[in-house]
Amino acid sequence: LPSLSLPSSMHLIQVDSVQRWMEDLKLMTDCECMCILQSKPIGIEKDEQNELILSSQYSTCDNLQLLLKRAWIISTELTRIAQKLEKNRWQRVHSMTVRVNCHVRSMINEYNTFTRNSSEEMHQFEKLLIDKCSEFTAFTERCLQTEDEQILKSMKSCIKETLTTVAQYFGQLIDLVLTHEAQNLLRQIELSDSVYITESAINSLFSLTQEGAHLCHIIAKEGGVVALFKVCRQDCFRCLYPQTLRTLASICCVEEGMHQLEKADGILCLADILTDNTHSEATHAEAAAVIAQITSPQLTFTQHLSSFLEHMEEIVTALVKLCQEASSGEVFLLASAALANITFFDTMACEILLQLNAMKILLAACSDKHIVDTPYSRDQVVTILANMSVLDQCASEIIQGNGVQLLMEMLFERSSSGNSAEVAACERVQQKSAVTLARLSRDPEVADAAVKLSCIPRLIKLCRSPTERNNSDSVLVACLVALRRLAVMSPDGLEDSDFQQLVKPRLVDSFLLCTNMEESFV
């Protein structure tokens, strides 16, 4: 089950390549102008200056995005210089070094136009970086003036060393800048009583979290989680709860965010929000998203879960209610994802769900195509069913809610778009529906219902046809196990060839047979 989490390194939002080129063109042409002007400002009247400075016409959020784009270009260019250097492409190395030099100067100039209170340490790093870039450019220019292989070889090691230093200074400067901006935004959030100022700062902070795990770590380290939970405890900011919680969910993808959540007693705050019926559905949904994030099975750090267990019953109860009353597919997805994650780490959660008639609620939701409208939502539902199916009482609930029919339908899950994420979700739905059938088929009544609904032929098809399961080995294993369980309960449902190849051999032998099977064999 994928967690609703965020990217792990600084990146830009994926957009159409032509659109991206158009956006970058402004930065690139500015850079070429700077090359000609040798980074000297144009003398103009003071009151007209802002019209010609690229970053001045934007808000703080836009300025940060511009800075990150410039940083991404510089980082990319440094990588390309290293590649060209290995191939001794001296002319290209020099021209790219000049370009990096200009980009660095442009970035620093742009940043200083919208930042009034940067630290002395930052100014020192700016000077170090500019000096080192100038030295770098001088080195590469000297390489163009000689063809002596020995001289070039000795200079190459110096250039490599300088390139490493430039990259190091650049990384440290970017970290300082981002830390400084995070501190400014958090200071606004902590000190302001204005809804408008606080909203603007939170939106800018959220924008930063979308740039990757490193930025989330910086924000958490600077006290971002504590500051945001403080907002969530003030009634005057109720209208800001949804975007505040969305930002918290993003920050909590990193370990430092989890540590801060524990310090801020964040789980109690989330439980209070989820159980308070006066909050909007949007607020409840975003609180569910934070729960889904912090309970993700993919996270390796779980120290916070001890305090989660104290509030689990009230949280699970609130999430089931949110699933039942969801007005849209998105709200249902967030609530069911949180429930699915919770069922992984404590069997008590499954028992609570059983007591709350969650099975009936989830099965009913699946019949509403406006609520359970994507493979992602069905993935969450079948995850909950699979984890609950270890309980003996679950079988009667499945029968009463027509759950076997739903599991059979899920074995036919296919992607309509061909999108890789959707295809992966469809594979998980097929796999988990087969796992659930295998677990529940220990009950003769469930097994009988599965046989009557022609589950056996469908499982055989999934085993024998790689395209039906999108060549997924995990789906194949789950289907083989389910097929063997049903074959025990209803041996007459299989032809002899199916029995001899898919049931009688060891599981690993049947698996190898099916993975090597040609499509024409089916």
TrEMBL record:
It comes from the Eukaryota. Pfam families: Insc_C, INSC_LBD. SUPFAM superfamilies: ARM repeat. Residues 70-522 form the Protein inscuteable homologue C-terminal domain. One of its GO terms (cellular component) is apical cortex. Residues 13-57 form the Protein inscuteable homologue LGN-binding domain. GO terms for molecular function: cytoskeletal anchor activity. GO terms for biological process: apical protein localization; asymmetric cell division; establishment of mitotic spindle orientation; regulation of asymmetric cell division. InterPro entries: ARM-like (IPR011989), ARM-type_fold (IPR016024), Armadillo (IPR000225), Insc_C (IPR045789), INSC_LBD (IPR031938), INSC_LBD_sf (IPR038205), Inscuteable (IPR039921). This is Protein inscuteable. It comes from Opisthocomus hoazin. The lineage of its organism: Eukaryota, Metazoa, Chordata, Craniata, Vertebrata.
